[in-house]
Design the sequence.
């Protein structure tokens, strides 16, 4: 029942291979004989390991995409960017304050943004990268954190940035600042932790641990379920 | 983009939709469920499993794919491999840079140990990164660790090890608080209250989440913290064998630099295995949701050193893996889609199972629908699937719900020109989770002195069936425990001479059983060359 697969030609680092039509770049490379070490992580669009640069025939423009999410086309030239030597600041999150000054201290190059929008155009997650960087430059940590939340840290934005900003690391710092210092703590969580430390549930758990299967099953079947 | 045949089938689904919106499919009775599982669950297929013939679990039945690896020889020749040069000498060696390994490394270092983390791909290229749904913890007023305990036990068919479950549920709120303090952006209400929802098998709404990137948010937070604290990490350097001393204690590991093809010898006072699951073994020929490095390496290494395995006969198949488009075959369609009201529908536009039965039952029902009843939908490459009627969600909860609640999913399908807000999606069960693993106790210790295990590589806490949201929890709970305990133990450990004696003995046992062939394990990476997988 499998229908005859059409084949297309792709050029992996300049070398021609015939691969089935309609498959992802990642699967096409494997079909062509590659066994990945770098450039392949989750295979599902979550880890950002598989950034790839490609060009279609008759087009001078370079495009980028995730190899596990981008489908091959006839005549495509491509290469992976498995690693990019990007700058990452180190910090002790606990001691930081959620302010513009903190961002600038760790990533002073932020201010070099030229507003070219290359980062937004390139983002495989379709994030408004330049806009979240603008929020960061205003010190709006919450906005930068929320707008960048779906970032996979694939690094493609940084690879195209003429100002050599590492957007995804700035965003990571913004999110951690937000999560730690801006978003209110969950009070119910803190209360529960205190109760556990005080041993409030120990006796009940111990009683359950001693029950045999039938007793547990009875309790389980009778438990009420929150609507 | 759907084929014309599929579009025809979708028309039928649309025709029956108004009627189905008012229809609730009856739940299975316990007897029906039992019969369904026994006839159609992949664990129960005749010829799916065989007894392993060597090692601590000799005689126990497991899937062929596991047995094949456990009965393989080491990559190393124990008589020829030189251990004279020690490349790294540390207190704690952590093997595996996912959520469990990174938590362990952070805690071990905090406890004053010198730590080395070795991982196969990049730090964070792991199943942890892929988890969307959420993480459980009983921290709300109407909930308690005891209620959580009961849910975990019931989910696991009461086969779980009680001490491990007690540790899991009692540590859970502490772990969420730890993640919160590290800046993990959980989805919260404006006053800081955690937004929590149900998951399959929960009796309280205790599923915490970070949109639908929960695992990614946890992983990138832990990884950033490890980088900030300067924990040394060796990427692309998987462990291929443990080391033991002459007293049979674990004493380190041999790593293999995948890029330079060189071996590295690590002496360590304690070792933590956190190598995750086994999806890339494609048990039963199923596609998988797992990351590229999920090849059960930790099980193979620990087994040779004498650690016992548990519950490997029970593999978790997720009922809704992508069946089409081919490009993302086997990837996860989160349970949340059914949770929000989407029904499972066959080629005739009819429901055939209550959508929120347990994962094993829904998987079996889909397999029955396609295999026995012939009511599946066939894809261009000849695979089968059933419809998951996603557009129902917006009809039930209002336009825009799908976009808001499932942005990662919508984006995923849109890349392949399928709009899941307007069209149903095609699904079939996929290999998702290794329910069992290396047997540990509540201190994350194995039977081998100095060897600890945490996360998906371990076994016992979930019994034969893990519930959604308890795995992300388990990796933090036992990752932290492993790190703390391994660091404490490292202070007093006296190591003897480094050896591969356990490997020699294992090879001898293989030879006695006539099994010492050419096949080596761990396999480290799957081999998809020349194929489309
Ligand atoms: C798509 C998907 C969705 C999921 N959704 C949820 C959810 O919503 N809730 C939930 O609770 N759970 C979920 N799970 C399960 C959960 O994410 C995993 O079980 C858990 O994250 C495993 O963590 P881990 O640290 O044990 O393993 P992993 O995160 O897989 O990390 C193991 C690491 O070890 C490395 N490694 C492997 N072999 C070696 C070796 N020989 N040497 C060195 N390193 C090695 C791997 O490459 C990897 O980096 C999901 C899983 C998947 C795949
Ligand atoms: S392999 Fe992880 S995003 Fe492509």
Sequence:
């Amino acid at each position: 029942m499998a229908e005859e697969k059409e084949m297309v030609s792709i050029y992996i680092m300049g070398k021609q291979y015939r691969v089935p039509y309609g498959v992802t770049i990642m699967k096409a490379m494997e079909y062509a004989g590659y066994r990945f070490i770098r450039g392949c992580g989750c295979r599902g669009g979550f880890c950002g390991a598989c950034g790839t640069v490609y060009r279609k025939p008759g087009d001078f423009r370079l495009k980028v995409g995730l190899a596990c999410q981008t489908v091959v086309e006839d005549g495509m030239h491509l290469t992976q960017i498995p690693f990019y030597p990007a700058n990452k600041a180190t910090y002790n999150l606990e001691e930081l304050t959620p302010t513009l000054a903190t961002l600038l201290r760790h990533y002073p190059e932020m201010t070099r943004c030229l507003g070219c929008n290359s980062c937004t155009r390139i983002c495989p997650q379709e994030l408004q990268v330049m806009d979240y960087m603008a929020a960061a430059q205003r010190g709006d940590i919450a906005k930068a954190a929320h707008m960048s939340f779906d970032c996979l840290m694939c690094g493609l934005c940084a690879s195209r940035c003429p100002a050599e900003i590492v957007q995804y690391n700035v965003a990571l710092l913004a999110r951690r600042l937000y999560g730690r210092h801006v978003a209110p703590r969950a009070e119910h969580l803190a209360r529960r932790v205190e109760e556990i430390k005080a041993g409030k549930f120990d006796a009940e758990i111990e009683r359950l641990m001693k029950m045999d299967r039938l007793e547990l099953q009875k309790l389980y079947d009778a438990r009420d379920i929150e609507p | 983009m759907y084929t014309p045949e599929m579009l025809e089938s979708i028309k039928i689904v649309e025709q029956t939709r108004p009627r189905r919106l008012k229809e609730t499919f009856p739940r299975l009775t316990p007897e029906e469920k039992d019969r369904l599982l026994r006839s159609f669950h992949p664990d129960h297929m005749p010829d799916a499993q065989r007894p392993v013939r060597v090692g601590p679990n000799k005689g126990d039945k497991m899937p062929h794919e596991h047995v094949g690896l456990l009965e393989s020889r080491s990559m190393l020749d124990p008589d020829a491999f030189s251990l004279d040069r020690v490349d790294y000498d540390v207190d704690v060696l952590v093997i595996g840079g996912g959520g469990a390994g990174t938590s362990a490394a952070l805690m071990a270092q905090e406890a004053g140990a010198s730590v080395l983390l070795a991982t196969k791909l990049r730090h964070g290229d792991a199943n942890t990164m892929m988890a969307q749904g959420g993480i459980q913890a009983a921290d709300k007023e109407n909930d308690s660790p005891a209620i959580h305990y009961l849910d975990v036990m019931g989910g696991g068919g009461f086969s779980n090890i009680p001490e491990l479950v007690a540790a899991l549920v009692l540590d859970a709120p502490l772990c969420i608080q730890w993640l919160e303090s590290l800046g993990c952006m959980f989805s919260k209400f404006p006053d800081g209250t955690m937004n929590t929802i149900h998951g399959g098998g929960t009796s309280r709404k205790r599923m915490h989440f970070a949109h639908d990137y929960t695992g990614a948010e946890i992983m990138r937070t832990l990884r950033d913290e490890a980088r900030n604290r300067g924990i040394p990490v060796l990427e692309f350097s998987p462990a291929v064998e443990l080391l033991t001393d002459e007293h049979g204690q674990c004493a380190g590991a041999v790593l293999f630099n995948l890029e330079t093809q060189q071996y590295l010898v690590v002496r360590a006072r304690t070792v933590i295995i956190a190598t995750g699951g086994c999806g890339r073994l494609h048990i039963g020929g199923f596609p998988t949701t797992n990351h590229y490095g999920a090849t059960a390496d930790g099980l193979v290494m620990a087994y040779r050193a004498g650690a016992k395995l548990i519950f490997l006969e029970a593999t978790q198949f997720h009922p809704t893996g992508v069946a089409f488009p081919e490009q993302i075959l086997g990837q996860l369609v989160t349970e949340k889609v059914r949770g929000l009201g989407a029904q499972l529908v066959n080629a005739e536009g009819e429901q055939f199972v209550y959508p929120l039965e347990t994962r094993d039952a829904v998987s079996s029902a889909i397999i029955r629908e396609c295999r026995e009843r012939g009511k599946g939908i066939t894809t261009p490459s000849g695979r089968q699937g059933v419809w998951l009627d996603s557009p129902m969600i917006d009809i039930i909860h209002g336009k825009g719900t799908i976009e808001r609640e499932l942005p990662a999913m919508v984006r995923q399908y849109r890349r392949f020109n399928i709009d899941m807000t307007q069209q149903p999606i095609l699904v079939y069960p996929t290999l998702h989770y290794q329910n069992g693993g290396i047997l540990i106790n509540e201190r994350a210790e194995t039977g081998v002195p100095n060897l600890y295990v945490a996360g998906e590589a371990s076994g016992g806490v979930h019994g034969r069936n893990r519930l959604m949201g308890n795995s992300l929890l388990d990796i933090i709970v036992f990752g932290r425990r492993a790190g703390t305990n391994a660091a404490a133990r490292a202070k007093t450990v006296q190591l003897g001479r480094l050896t591969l004696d356990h490997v020699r003995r294992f090879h001898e046992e293989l030879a006695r059983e006539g099994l010492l062939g050419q096949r080596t394990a761990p396999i480290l990476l799957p081999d998809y060359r020349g194929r489309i997988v």
Remarks:
- Residues 86 and 179 of chain A are 24 Å apart (CA to CA).
- Chain A touches chain B through 75 residues (CB under 8 Å).
- The domain at 84-215 of chain A is CATH 1.10.1060 (Fumarate Reductase Iron-sulfur Protein; Chain B, domain 2).
- Chain A has ten helices and five strands.
